[in-house]
Amino acid sequence: MKIATFNINNVVRRFDNLVDWLDEAQPDIVCLQELKAETSAFPRQALEQMGYGAAVVGQRSWNGVAILARDAVPVVTRTALPGDPADGQARYVEAAVRGVIIGCLYLPNGNPRPGPKFDYKMAWFERLIAHAQTLMSSSAPVVLAGDYNVVQTEADIYQPHSWKGDALLQPQSRAAFAKLLDQGWIDALRAIHPDGPLWTFWAYLRNRWPADKGLRLDHLLISPDLGERLLEAGVDRWVRGQAEASDHAPAWIELDL
Fold it and tell me: Which of 66, 139, 200, 209 has CB atoms 3.0–4.6 Å from 218's, for a disulfide?
């Protein structure tokens, strides 16, 4: 089973890019973030014609997440992260697909900091940690995939000092990610590729894509029982080089299920 995560950065505008990648990569499950479209505007019918069922939580102009499943219909278990009923941002959807629980998440960016956006980021992170512990305790096979908006280590960014003040690199952000991993989650990409860059994001500014000045923001965390079933992992860098591309590239894993 091939599972991928992709911050599409506007699913309507970049639908052709998405289709090209789906045709080439043939993933079985896809977690999409930053749809920037209401649920009703999501291209569900076109994707169904390609063989993908979808679970969608959209939001106009901002955020939005979706889970695609090839030749299957995701059985939705959650349409929001628990812990704050007043939170109206579309950042989490969870579904069962072929016996695996898939959590698709778009963690808040947190900039500018300090301020309410960073406070929201950290509060959301704590809610994620709490829910992840519940999932871990369930003993179900789980994949938590998405744009975590955290640069975990210096090895996950081309040049740390250029981003020194950014919310992505703050000690609090990194500590929260470490706290999540301490529950027993496996960083699947690093498990396969322990050394070297695994960029998944290149900003549009300052020629960063051609210069390969990237960051690793997109992660697939798997429950321990899936660790022994992990076969391969990678990043489809070529997608970032397409015309009108998202500033992210898809990251993926293969599991022997």
Answer: 200
